Amino acid sequence: MKKHNEDAFKTLVTYYQNKVYNLCYSYLRSRSEAEDLAQEVFIEVYQSIGNFRERSGLGTWIYRITVNKSLEYIRRLNRNKRWAFVYSLFGKEEYVARYHRDEMHPGVKLENKERVTLLFSKIDELPEKQRTVFLLHKVEGQSYAEAAKIMETTVSSVESLMHRAKMNLRKSLREYYKSEKD
User: Fold this and answer.
1) Closest C-alpha to 18, from 163, 140, 149
2) CATH ID of 104-182, from 3.90.226.10, 1.10.150.530, 3.40.50.12780, 1.10.10.10
3) 167 CB burial (10 A radius; 0-12, 13-18, 19+)
4) Is residue 54 helix, strand or coil?
5) In this predicted model, which residue has the larger pLDDT, 8 or 88?
6) Euclidean distance between CA atoms 22 and 20, whole angstroms
7) Environment class of residue 174 by beta-carbon count within 10 Å: exposed (0-12), middle (13-18) or buried (19+)?
8) Statement: residue 178 has pLDDT above 80
9) How far apart are alpha carbons 23 and 27 in whole angstroms?
């Protein structure tokens, strides 16, 4: 694989493509953008496989690339989003429409759409590290140990981040539902 063996790479893509896509989708909630970003992840994997030091598992390394690419994409998106309002003033609505997210994560039933949309909007408000831990553990099913490897931190740090993420989500959801009653 380190010598760009195409058959080995095809096997790797086949094995990890759904996992990478789902993690990208958890961050972006846009099917087309998640597909594009997943392709970018695999291009990065292919181009940098020679740099893989085998200190962690291959899956952990691929998840780390996926998380980093997703966060980079969101940062780039947020920079562009700041200009969307200005562009809309000049009749460039396509810029505004591009940054609207309303798709559902695969596997979520239609009747839960409103609650899940709210939850993901509140997840988006979490600090970056808390959001990453929450998505890796709760959405992607990674253990704390796996999340720690992906994030290159300790298990206790992941546990702490998860605790804070849950507390922040509880608080923001409680405030939302309280304001909805008023």
Assistant:
1) 140
2) 1.10.10.10
3) exposed
4) coil
5) 8
6) 6
7) exposed
8) no
9) 7
* CA 129 – CA 40 distance, rounded (Å): 22
Query: Does residue 100 register a pLDDT over 90?
Result: no
Place of tokens 């099913």: 141
Terminal C-alpha separation, the chain = 59
DSSP string covering 11-68, please? Answer: HHHHHHHHHHHHHHHHHH--HHHHHHHHHHHHHHHHHHGGG--SSS-HHHHHHHHHHH
Reported pTM? 0.66
Amino acid 5: pLDDT:
81
pLDDT digits (tens, 9 = 90+) for 77-86: 776 655 454 4
DSSP state letter for 106:
T
Give the Cα-Cα-Cα angle 134, 99, 26 (nearest 5 degrees).
25
Q: Give, as one character, the DSSP assignment of residue 110.
A: G
Backbone angles phi, psi at 107, to 5 degrees: 90, -10
